[in-house]
Design brief:
Blueprint lengths: L14 H22 L3 E10 L4 E13 L3 E3 L1 H11 L1 H22 L7 E4 L10 H11 L7 E5 L7 H16 L3 E7 L5 H7 L4 E4 L10 H17 L2 E5 L4 H9 L4 E3 L9 H14 L4
Parallel strand pairs: 2-4, 4-5, 5-6, 6-7, 7-8, 8-9
Antiparallel strand pairs: 1-2, 1-9, 2-3
Helix pairs in contact: 3-4
This protein binds ligand C2E and magnesium ion (3 copies).
Length: 285
C-alpha cells in the first residue's frame, strides 16, 4: 500500500505525482466495471470479548481484488473515492454484501453475529441516505442490532453537518442499527463528541496501544475505559497485536479487542473456519 502524493498545493511537481494521477485515473475508470463484476470483496476481522474470549462481532473491510492489478488496499482508493463521491456507492455495496451474508446465515439456520460497516462522511451530504440502507435491511430480513455503522470524527468536523449527523444517529437507532465512533481519541474533539452524540460503541485508536508499557499511555487507556463504562458505551481496543497488550487490557477490564493478535481481516470462508476453530478448541484460552 502506498502513500498519496500531490495533496499539498505548495509542493513542486514530482514524477511520483504523474504516477499517482495515472493510478487515480485508472481506478476511477475501473470502478463501475469492478462493482458490476463484484471485484470488491469484504473481509471480516473478528472482535473478541476479553472477559470470556468469545466472538462479539466482526468488522467488514473492503478489498479490491482486480483481475490484472491484484489486491488493492483501501488506503489506495478510499481517499480518492471520498473526494469524488464514489465512496457512497461503494459503502452501499459493502453494506448490501454484509446483509446478503447475514441473510444466508439465517436461511442456513446458522448463528448470527453483529457486523460493523464503515460509513464515509460523504453520506451526510444527502439527508435521505439511510432510507436505502433501511430498505435493504428489510429486504434481507436482518434483525435489529445486527449491523453497526462505524463513523470517524471526520463526519463531525463540519459544524453545519453536525446537527444532521446527530439526527442520523437518532434515526439509525429507530431503524435498528447501532453506531460506533471509529479511530476514537486521535481527533481534536473526541471527548466532546461523547457528550453530544448518542453512540453505542467507541473504538479506541490503535495509536494508544503502540507503547503500552508507557505509564502515561496506561493511564490514558484505563481512563477511557472508565469513562466509557460510566457512560454506558461499549469499548473496542483497535490494533491489538501482542499477548502483552492483550493481558494488560484484560487487567484494565477492557471489554473488546480487535487486531492481528486474534486475527487479520479474513475472507468469509477463512473467517468461518476461524470461528469454528475458536469455538471448538477455545484456542485463546
Ligand atoms: P478502520 O475502519 O479503522 O479499520 C481498521 C484497519 O486497521 C483495517 O485496515 C485493518 O486491517 C487494520 N488493522 C486491524 N488490526 C490491526 C493490527 O493489529 N495492526 C495494524 N497495524 N492494523 C490493523 P484496512 O482494512 O486497510 O482499512 C483501512 C481503513 O479504510 C479503515 O480503517 C476504514 O477507515 C477504511 N475502510 C475499509 N473498508 C471500508 C469501507 O467499506 N468503507 C469505508 N468508507 N471505509 C473503509
Ligand atoms: Mg472501522
Ligand atoms: Mg478504526
Ligand atoms: Mg483507521
Amino acid at each position: 500500500c502506498r502513500q498519496r502524493h500531490g495533496t499539498d498545493p505548495c509542493s513542486f511537481f514530482h514524477p511520483e505525482m504523474a504516477k499517482q494521477m495515472q493510478l487515480e485515473y485508472e481506478l476511477n475508470t475501473m470502478f463501475e466495471d469492478s462493482i458490476k463484476k463484484r471485484d470488491f470483496q469484504i473481509y471480516l476481522q473478528p472482535k473478541v470479548r476479553l472477559a470470556d474470549l468469545t466472538l462479539s462481532g466482526a468488522e467488514a473491510l473492503v478489498r479490491w481484488i482486480h483481475p490484472d492489478k491484484g489486491m488493492i488496499c483501501p488506503s489506495d482508493f478510499i481517499p480518492l473515492f471520498e473526494e469524488n463521491g464514489k465512496i457512497c456507492r461503494l459503502d452501499l455495496y459493502v453494506y448490501e454484501t454484509v446483509c446478503a451474508y447475514l441473510h444466508k446465515r439465517i436461511e442456513q439456520q446458522k448463528d448470527l453475529f453483529p457486523i460493523s460497516v464503515n460509513l464515509s462522511r460523504a453520506h451526510f451530504k444527502d439527508l435521505n441516505f439511510l432510507r436505502k440502507f433501511s430498505e435493504l435491511k428489510a429486504k434481507y430480513g436482518i434483525p435489529d442490532g445486527m449491523i453497526e455503522f462505524e463513523l470517524t470524527e471526520y463526519s463531525f468536523l463540519d459544524k453545519q453537518q453536525r446537527e444532521m449527523v446527530k439526527n442520523c444517529i437518532k434515526q439509525m437507532h429507530r431503524l435498528g442499527f447501532h453506531c460506533a465512533l471509529d479511530d476514537f481519541g486521535v481527533g481534536y474533539s473526541a471527548l466532546a463528541l461523547l457528550k453530544d452524540f448518542d453512540v453505542d460503541t467507541i473504538k479506541l485508536d490503535r495509536q494508544f496501544f503502540v507503547d503500552m508499557t508507557n505509564p502515561k499511555a496506561q493511564t490514558i487507556i484505563s481512563g477511557f475505559i472508565e469513562i466509557s463504562e460510566k457512560l454506558g458505551i461499549h469499548l473496542v481496543a483497535e490494533g491489538i497485536e501482542t499477548k502483552e497488550q492483550m493481558e494488560l487490557l484484560k487487567q484494565f477490564h477492557c471489554e473488546m479487542v480487535q487486531g492481528y493478535y486474534f486475527s487479520k481481516p479474513l475472507t468469509i470462508d477463512e473467517f468461518e473456519k476461524w470461528k469454528d476453530t475458536m469455538q471448538k478448541q477455545k484456542v485463546f484460552k
